[in-house]
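Annex B. Sample input.
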Amino acid sequence: MLKQAMAGVLSEKEMDELYGAFDQIGEIIILRIPESLLPKRKIIGKVLLDKVKTAKSVFYQSSPVKGDYRIRQLELLAGEDNTQTEYKEHGCRFKVDVEKTFFSPRLSTERQRIADLISDGETVINMFGGIGMFSIVAARRKKCHVYNIDINPFAAKLCSENIMLNKLKGTVESIEGDTTQIIEQRLSGKGDRILMLLPERSDEFLDSAIKACKDCGIIHYYCHTHADKKSDVPTLATQHFLMAAKFQSTILGSKIVRPVGPRFYQAVVDVAISR
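Annex B, continued. Sample output.
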C-alpha cells in the first residue's frame, strides 16, 4: 500500500528502494524509511496521511527498539504530534503509547495462538508483558490468571488501564518491576505456562523462566534466528533453545512468528518441562 500511495511522487528508482509496508496502530502510522530516502521523508509522510483516512499522525521510526524499556525514537512526519492512541484486536481495546512502550500489531496471530493453547484454570506468567496485549487477549477468552510483568512503568500503568477497559473471563495482574526479582520473590513455581516475549534476550532469562514454572509446565521461548532458507527457521530456533537450556525438556513445536529483516526471523519454541 505504501508504494501504491507514492506512485507519481517518487521516481522508479526511489520506489524500488522504498519499503512496501508500514504499521498502523489505531490512528497512528509508523514508517521505516531507507537512508537514501530520508531527505524525502516529510513528503512521504504527508502523502501517506492524505491517503489513509483513518490515520491522524505519521511517524518515522528513527531508531531500533532498544533498552530495558524496549522503546524506539520517533520523528513526526505529518499530522498530530500525539503518540497515544487506542487499538482494537480480537475483541479487546487497548490504550497504546507508541513512543513510551513497546507494541507491535504484527504479533496479532501469535497472541491468538497462545490464547487458544491456554486452558481454563491455568496460571500464566508473562515475563515481559508490556501493555498487556497477550495477557488480556488470553484472559478475555479463558478463565486463567495472568501475571503481566514489565520493568517499564509506563507499560505497567497502561496495562492496568487496559485491564479495566475489557470484560475478561479470567484475571490479569499488572506488576511493575524486574522480572527476575519478582519471580524470585513471589512467583517461584507458580506458573503453568511461561511467556518469554523478549526474543533478543531470552537466553538471559531461561533460569528465571524455569524457576517460575511448576514441576510440569510449558515455556514459550521466543528468539531471533538468521536463516538463508525460511524453511530452516523452526529447526534452527529449536537448536538455539537446546543449546541455551540447562534443564530436561520436551519440544512440543517451533514456528516462525514473523520476519524482522532480510533472512532474519522471530521464532517461538514451545517447550514442556519436567523436574
